[in-house]
C-alpha cells in the first residue's frame, strides 16, 4: 500500500477570496432551502479554515461570506469555486 501525496492548498487561512460562481446549498447547510444561493458570484469572503478531503485528495476551504441579507454565512468551497481578490 502506498500513501498518496496530499495536494497542497493554493489559498491560505485568512486570505480574502471571492466566489467564482453562485454557491448554492447542496442540502448540507442547515436552516436554508436546498438549492438556495448561499453566496452570489463575486461575493467577497475570508478563508477561516482549510481542510482536506482524503478520498478525493483535494483541499476544502471554509469561507465566511457576508450574504446579501446582511448575515454572515460560512460555506465549504472547492478551489475552482474561488478566486483571489
Automatic annotation (TrEMBL):
The entry's keywords: Nitrogen fixation
List, alphabetically, the Pfam families matched: NifZ (PF04319)
The source's superkingdom equals Bacteria
Family in the record? Belongs to the NifZ family.
What's the protein name?
A: Nitrogen fixation protein NifZ
Organism, scientific name: Novosphingobium mangrovi (ex Huang et al. 2023)
Amino acid at each position: 500500500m502506498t500513501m498518496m501525496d496530499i495536494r497542497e492548498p493554493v489559498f491560505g487561512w485568512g486570505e480574502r477570496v471571492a466566489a467564482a460562481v453562485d454557491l448554492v446549498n447542496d442540502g448540507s447547510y442547515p436552516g436554508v432551502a436546498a438549492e438556495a444561493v448561499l453566496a452570489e458570484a463575486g461575493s467577497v469572503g475570508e478563508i477561516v479554515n482549510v481542510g482536506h478531503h482524503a478520498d478525493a485528495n483535494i483541499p476544502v476551504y471554509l469561507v465566511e461570506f457576508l450574504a446579501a441579507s446582511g448575515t454572515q454565512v460560512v460555506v465549504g468551497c472547492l478551489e475552482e469555486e474561488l478566486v483571489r481578490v
